[in-house]
């Protein structure tokens, strides 16, 4: 049977950028004999408009059954006044929770042609290719006790950083697995100097390494130093694995090494399915961009590169993923630019579908 892909285009520019991915999927079917069973459904505001909920139970069931889910973006001003229980974001949160997507992959990859867009000097980032693996379902954003409490005659705000051995173990494994498909190097970041959870994190990551991944090069770094190293010499890293809080901050920092939001893909992986592959959700980092929605201006590359990640990590098609990434690199080198990739000096940008045309060509 063909691998199954559930497409949830969502709101705003979501359907626009996804339209280009669908053309690319069709191309792989025609030209590379790589067919998928593609299903389309609604998420976010689009699902709310039809069903009164940002994620219908049937859609949730399809997502759990699919080999991979590819999501565009959710949200928009039309839904800002809705009750939190039916806000578009809740559709995405439900997907993440029920698919148990504990490992969030955020690549920071700098195409040479766009190195001028980086916040850093060109030679520090040209050819950069790192992957941050962020633990996504535990840590200080979820730990109990949490709340604002009375203490004496003032209030105290409390969050708890909490990690179990098994939570650290599974995200460490996903980082080592990734490293084997890349540069075979993992740097684990925590604050074992001042945090108990950091001590346990370091110990468990080391143990997983020694027992099952001794072939992967492992180093440990305090997360504050890691932040410094990311902007001092980012090319020293291959895979970085870290907790939810540090990963939130470090991945946003790493994103800005590469330039435009319209270029950044992501993946979130969960526990293995029956066939041993992890449940997976792929999505661009950007949102629904209401300011440019419906105008054919959106850059489809973040969504296209998210599909490339699906090819590599869910469908075992690393060569085809590289083919697609190479095509993106080539069109950028040839000077194709959507509006978000124009420098301050301006120029004449191409449209969403023209970018799709160029990549297909
Ligand atoms: P945003 O990412 O939608 O837009 C930020 C800026 O980047 C805008 O100026 C936009 O035009 C530009 N931009 C974003 N993606 C682009 C692309 N592919 N091509 C060209 N330009 C692009 O973030 P914002 O404005 O904070 O949020 C807008 C809506 O999206 C909100 O409703 C928010 O809740 C939602 N959102 C959804 C996310 C998701 O679905 N995962 C993530 C972030 C925000
Ligand atoms: Mg963040």
Notable traits:
single chain, 361 residues, alpha/beta, Isopropylmalate Dehydrogenase, 2 domains, two-stranded antiparallel ribbon, 12 helices, 22% strand, binds 1,4-dihydronicotinamide adenine dinucleotide, binds magnesium ion, manganese, 3-isopropylmalate dehydrogenase activity, branched-chain amino acid biosynthesis
Q: Can you characterise this structure?
A:
With 361 residues, the protein is an alpha/beta fold. The chain has two domains: 1-101 and 264-361, 3-Layer(aba) Sandwich (Isopropylmalate Dehydrogenase); 129-256, Isopropylmalate Dehydrogenase, CATH 3.40.718.10. 39% of the residues lie in helices and 22% in strands. It has twelve helices and twelve strands. The strands form two sheets. Strands 2-1-3-12-11-4-5-10-8-9 form a ten-stranded mixed beta sheet, with helices on both faces. The protein is globular, with a radius of gyration of 21 Å. The two termini are 29 Å apart. The model has no long low-confidence stretch (mean pLDDT 94). 1,4-dihydronicotinamide adenine dinucleotide (NAI) is lined by residues 13, 17, 73-76, 89, 92, 261-262, 283, 286-292, 298-299, 302, 340.
Ligand types: 1,4-dihydronicotinamide adenine dinucleotide, magnesium ion
Q: What's the order of the H and E elements?
A: EHEHHEHEHEEEHEHEHEHEEHHH
Number of strands: 12
Number of domains: 2
Mean pLDDT metric? 94
Strand content: 15-25%
Task: Specify the overall morphology.
Answer: globular
Structural class: alpha/beta
Tell me roughly what share of residues is in helical segments: 25-40%
CATH C-level label of the largest domain: Alpha Beta
Separate helix tally:
12
């Amino acid at each position: 049977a063909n691998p199954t892909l559930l497409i949830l285009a969502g709101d705003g520019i979501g359907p626009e950028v996804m339209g280009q991915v669908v053309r690319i999927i069709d191309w792989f079917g025609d030209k590379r004999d790589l067919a998928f069973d593609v299903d389309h459904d609604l998420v976010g505001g689009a699902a709310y408009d039809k069903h009164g909920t940002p994620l219908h139970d049937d859609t949730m069931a399809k997502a759990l059954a699919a080999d991979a889910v590819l999501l565009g973006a959710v949200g928009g001003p039309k839904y800002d006044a809705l009750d939190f229980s039916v806000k578009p974001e809740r559709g995405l949160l439900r997907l993440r929770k029920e698919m148990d997507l504990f490992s969030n992959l955020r690549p920071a990859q700098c195409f040479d042609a766009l190195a001028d867009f980086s916040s850093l000097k060109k030679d520090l980032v040209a050819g950069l290719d790192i992957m941050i693996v962020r633990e996504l379902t535990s840590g200080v954003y979820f730990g109990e006790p949490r709340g604002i409490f009375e203490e004496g005659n003032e209030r105290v705000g409390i969050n708890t950083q909490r990690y179990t051995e098994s939570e650290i173990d599974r995200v460490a494994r996903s980082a080592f697995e990734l490293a084997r498909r890349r540069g075979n190097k993992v740097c684990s970041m925590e604050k074992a100097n001042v945090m108990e959870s950091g001590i346990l994190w370091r110990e468990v990551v080391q143990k997983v390494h020694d027992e099952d991944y001794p072939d992967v090069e492992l180093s440990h770094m305090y997360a504050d130093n890691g932040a410094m190293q990311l902007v001092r010499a980012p090319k020293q890293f291959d895979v970085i694995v870290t907790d939810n809080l540090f990963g939130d901050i470090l991945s946003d920092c790493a994103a800005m090494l590469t330039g435009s939001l319209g270029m950044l893909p992501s993946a979130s992986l969960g526990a293995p399915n029956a066939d041993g592959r992890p449940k997976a959700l792929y999505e661009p980092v950007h949102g629904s961009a209401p300011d440019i929605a419906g105008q054919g201006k959106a850059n489809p590359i973040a969504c296209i590169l998210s599909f490339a990640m699906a090819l590599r990590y869910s469908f075992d098609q690393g060569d085809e993923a590289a083919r697609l990434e190479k095509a993106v690199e080539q069109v950028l080198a040839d000077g194709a630019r959507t509006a978000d990739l124009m420098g301050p000096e301006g120029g004449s940008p191409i449209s969403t579908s023209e970018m799709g045309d160029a990549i297909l060509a």
